[in-house]
């Protein structure tokens, strides 16, 4: 670990050392050995004092194992930090941490101050030689976001209280704390129905799942040869045809556009909270879902793309993605994201669209809708989230096809 050391000591200590050396020389000259011994002990104390300030905290190491704490707004959690001291022991030290006010300390005994959106917390710290110390910081989730420790300083006082050593950590701290967004209820005005082939049972679907046989019926002219149930035919003496369960593809895409002209939309928190609710709705209905956001991200695509999945573990990955969004993110044109997904055939039968739209985006959406994809727009009406069917707006420069 790289620590920046700053030593604070009495400014008159060097002058006192020189004076003690002169007095020691004088006492030896007059052969006052008792005074010489006392002065020598004072000089040794000053040198040991200086040596301790130079060496204190030299062996302190932060546990570099990456740790991520996940929590919801208003929820309390423990932020754990591990240290190991392979150097000199010290007591009565103070560990000062700085982080954004995404969370705030929950302990009333902990000293902390909040200025300009930054929390500065002070934690007592002591460590013997070779000892491993666990620091526990109880915190409460204040708002959505990703919280990291931006500054860590260790204040080590001298054994006799004269002077101190301040160590500032120069390496990044791997521990992070993630506060999930609060979900805002959304009223779905029209329940989306998929018209694509899939494996989800639907009573009134035009398609059937060839892997789910629900019974047999008498053979009629035109039935496929491979659909004949030979065992049932042998048992009844007449040809029997397999009957399959009606099914369809049931999957959602939550598509988020964070751009609003040349900046991040001012409705970021509203969009995030509505997207979090739609994920909860999908998990409750056992519906697989994917998510795409037009922010720059690592991976095979130049934007953030959460592949299709289902269940609470998949929802947690989606919440982590939403928690990390901020107004400092770089975005790319949303229409390019939709065109790329359309070319890769990653678009499911139902899309929930959040964010601002422009003419270019609506042209791409018209092409997508013409292929049978249902598009629902997430908006806020009278402080209530609403998911309503998207309709192409009129554009005097571009004729609208009947398929829209």
Question: Can you describe what's shown?
Answer:
This protein is α+β, with helices and mostly antiparallel strands and 404 residues long. It has 7 helices and 24 strands. It has helices at 13-29, 33-55, 230-236, 268-284, 312-323, 334-343, 359-369; strands spanning 3-8, 60-62, 68-72, 76-85, 90-100, 103-105, 111-115, 118-127, 131-141, 145-157, 164-169, 176-180, 186-188, 200-201, 207-218, 240-248, 252-257, 259-260, 263-264, 289-296, 303-309, 350-355, 374-381, 384-389. Strands 1, 3, 5, 7, 8, 10, 11 and 12 form an 8-stranded mixed beta sheet that branches. A 7-stranded mixed beta sheet has the order 13-24-23-22-17-20-21, covered by helices on one side. It has a 4-stranded antiparallel beta sheet with strand order 2-4-9-6, with no helix packed on it. Strand 10 and strand 11 form a beta hairpin. 25% of the residues are buried. The model is unreliable at 197-201, 203-207 and 394-404 (pLDDT under 50).
